Amino acid sequence: MSDVFVPGIRSRFNTEKLVEDLMRIERIPRDRVESNIDSLENRKVWWQDIGRRITSLRESARMLFSFQNPFNDRVATSFDPNILTATATREADEQNYRFSVKQLAEADRFLSPPLDERTAIEAGTYTFTVGRDEISFEFRGGTLREFADMLNRRGRDKIGASLITVQPGSRSLLIESKITGTENRLDFFGDAALLMVRLGVVEPVNDSRRELPFTESTIRDTTASAMPANPVTIHNSVLELPALTSVSVPFGFPVEPGAPFVLRIETSTAIKTEAAFGLPMPPPGPSIPSPGAATYGGITIENNPSTAPLPEWDPPSAPQRTDNLAIFSLSFSDGSRMQLRPITDSESFSSWEYNLSDAAAGKTITSLNIDNSNTHRDISVRGAMILDPNANGAGYNPLNAVSTAQNAIISMEGIDMIRPSNTISDIIPGVTITAHGVSERPVRLDVSTDRDGIKDAIYNLVGNYNLLMAELNILTRNDPTIIDELSYLDRDEIDAMQARLGVFSGDSTLNQFRNGLLRAVTSPYPTEAERELSMLVQIGISTNANGAASGYNRSQLRGYLQINDRALDAALDTHLPAIRQLFGNDTTGDMIVDSGVAVNLDAISQPFVETGGIISLKTGTIDSRITQDRRRIDTMDRQLAAREAELRIQYSRMEAAYAQMEQMQSSLDNFSQRNNNNR
């Protein structure tokens, strides 16, 4: 049946196969061009890979000498992280400090007795305050859980509530301020106060606060000098004490032994410059009248001026500077006196608290003394108040205080500093301190250069250098052992490397670039910090950093770098300034880094990856060739389509001619048969 010919269905001469075979031969030039495009696209990808490797190397090199270099980074190390931790910025100075955490900053946290979880909360307007922030909301009534959820939604980052399961069916309400510091006490007003009393969170008490007003009638000027240069003044309840002035404020408030009263007061300071203390000028002397003159015949004759000889001017010496921030003291009825903790300088008002029960020790306090014995500092004082720290400002005392609002007290080198938060950033420039616990002994805090960060940056540079060097070795050398030496490659990466092995072996640009990289990491770069340190090998970085003990390794001939970790650590500990200059150094004093390993690597890499650089030119040329080949393919496709159509027409005509000949043959055979039959 395979030889049966059905016109219009089966070709007598298998035309389709003949045309396809002929077109396969015709397509050979076109397939070659398409294969060339695939090869060009692979080359483009390989050039782009080289560009990414170079960019990575350049970025890691610039990291070691740019303004963001890790040699300026600082790290703070605490010798007791359970008590104190810290972070440091680049602005911090390398120095050792000792801190004592005398008190942690805490927030008000009040707990109710166990409550039935079905306790109903009535509808109303509930108002809470945390310091000067007010949180108020309307509650339409509901369960204890619904009230706590509403308070958490409205309280945001100021106040929160939670329910603690005491036993099945019983819950305790914990309501807390989320802001630490004595100035951020948790208070209740209106329906909130009534609810807290009903739930047993607080109880109403008499307000124990007593103000020490600063008025002309309540203060007594005790300045030693009868005529001070600038007198004490009071403006808007702020007591202004210029340098070398003092006042006494009557107390008039009994402090019983054991009573938890504190003195809260705010201060600010203004430091004068030396220019403000200019020495007096010499006295002008007596005023001498004009001696007069006589005129005759148009001629004027003046008398000799009178003279008044003055003694030689002996200017007074500049005042000796006195700095004393222990400005507060208490006077007692027995005539004794006790100095209170010093304050610190602050242009804005800072709050201070002093425990009066400890200071009084059972004595009767008669007055608060404020002595500004400083010669170059004016002091302002306001808001003096005596209060019970356990009672809030609205007149309620917590029945079960988990913690009460208080400031952190941190001592540095014997100076106490009070802050509302346990995270403090204004003691040491560039250093943020976080207190975690109270310490009996000082905790050492070291601020030093971030050597680990420097080491990571060096490792990053060496790693990117080796990856680029491996890429260049594979592309420019047709040696399979290069791939075998890269033990960190997986199977897919090995196959990818084998596909590109030696494809750019004739490219002189890459060979020169590889040699330039190798010279950059092995050349000497003299440093001013230490003349004898000038090469990477001296800090444990070389093509054979592990020494002869590691044995012969062919990869050492490929230009890869190794790091002797122990030698690098020792160098970073003892030669840090020289190492910085080894990677990047300003040799001309023009504030531009112009020498060093990292600088040289950056300079060598720049022509390849900059805009319009070598990589861009290479990939641009390939793109142009690909575009040209695609146009050739489009032209060839049109030509092949025309050729295929032409062949099909020719074979169709041949089929038709053959069919016509068969038809004529059949007609002749029939005609001959009829003639034979007629005979």
Structural class: alpha+beta
Uncertain spans: 1-9
N→C terminal distance: 38 Å
> What kind of sheet is the major sheet?
6 strands, antiparallel
Beta-strand portion reads: 25-35%
Q: What is the overall number of helices?
A: 13
Outline type: elongated
Mean pLDDT across all amino acids: 86
Annotation, overall tally of beta strands: 35
Radius of gyration: 47 Å
Which key features would you list for this structure?
single chain, 679 residues, alpha+beta, 5-stranded antiparallel sheet, 35 strands, 33% helix, 25% strand, disordered N terminus
Task: Briefly say what this structure is.
With 679 residues, the protein is α+β, with helices and mostly antiparallel strands. The protein is built from 13 helices and 35 strands. The strands form ten sheets. Strands 14, 16, 17, 19, 24 and 26 form a six-stranded antiparallel sheet that branches. Strands 1-33-3-29-30 form a five-stranded antiparallel sheet, with no helix packed on it.
